Every structure is written in C-alpha cells, then in structure tokens.
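Supplementary Methods. Inverse-folding protocol.

Structures were first reduced to a discrete structure-token string of length 100. This string, shown here, constituted the complete conditioning input.
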C-alpha cells in the first residue's frame, strides 16, 4: 500500500472541499439574484399602480363633472371636454401638474 504525503492529502482535501462548496455557492447566488429581481419588480409595480390609479381617478372625476354639467345643461361642451382616450387625459393631467 502506498502512503500519501501530507501535501497530497491537503490537495485532495482542498479539491473535495471546493467541489462540495461550489454548488452551494451557485445556489445561493441564484436565490439571491431571483430575490433581488422579485423585490425590484414589486416596487416598480407598486409605483406604477399608484400613479395609474391617481391618473385614472382624475380622469374619471373630470368625465363625471362633464356629464353632470351636461345633464344639468350648465355647459355648452366647450368649457369642459371629456377625455376620449386615456392618453389625452394623461397629457392634460401632466400639463396641469407641471403648472403648479
């Protein structure tokens, strides 16, 4: 039987350690990467939802105001115009926010 010297034993133990730790490190990296990605997406979704809700609320309020004034015959359709598309309302809301 051959006897290994200390340096060979050290080399084998280092390789064994590296081979057993590498998959754990890779799994940890993947999990951390996915967790960070999910957190970033959630924050973006939350911010977008809040902005979209505020914009939609303002547009709905203006359209409701127009409908009430029109039914009460207090407007001639040139004073308050309803939003025909969300894009028109969004531009109008942005302009009014930039003025203030």
């Amino acid at each position: 039987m051959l006897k290994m010297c200390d340096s060979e034993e050290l080399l084998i133990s280092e390789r064994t350690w590296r081979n057993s730790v590498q998959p754990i490190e890779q799994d940890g990296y993947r999990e951390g990467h996915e967790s960070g990605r999910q957190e970033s997406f959630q924050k973006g979704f939350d911010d977008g939802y809040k902005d979209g809700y505020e914009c939609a609320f303002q547009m709905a309020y203006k359209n409701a105001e127009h409908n009430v004034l029109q039914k009460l015959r207090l407007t001639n359709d040139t004073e308050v115009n309803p939003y025909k598309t969300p894009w028109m309302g969004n531009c109008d809301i942005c302009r009014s926010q930039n003025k203030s």
